[in-house]
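Is this the right way to post structure tokens for a design question? Let me know if I should format differently. Anyway, here goes:
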């Protein structure tokens, strides 16, 4: 797997600004391995800052050229998890 320089530091900064974040899921076409012009992301956690997430989404759109649809949930429903890909999980959390 190719490592992107500075990605660990960036991830640490994002997680520090979203202390209630438990999981990040990618859904839709990208989760199925199909090229897409959109990134459908589910952020699971409590008391997540939607304004901060909106700003991150805008930055990702500029960097990737893809539209980002980010949805915030407190819990991931099992029926939705089957169609999504877990890409990040807080250590020690389920």
């Amino acid at each position: 797997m190719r490592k992107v320089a500075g990605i660990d530091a960036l991830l640490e900064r994002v997680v520090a600004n979203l202390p209630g974040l438990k999981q990040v899921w990618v859904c839709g076409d990208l989760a199925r391995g199909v090229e897409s012009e959109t990134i459908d992301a589910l952020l699971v956690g409590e008391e997540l800052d939607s304004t901060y997430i909106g700003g991150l989404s805008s930055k990702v759109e500029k960097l990737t050229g893809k539209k980002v649809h980010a949805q915030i949930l407190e819990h991931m429903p099992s029926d939705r998890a089957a169609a999504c890909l877990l890409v990040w999980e807080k250590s020690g959390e389920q």
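Format looks fine. Someone answered above. Worth noting: The first strand starts at residue 21 and ends at 27. Helices lie at 7-17, 28-31, 50-64, 78-81.
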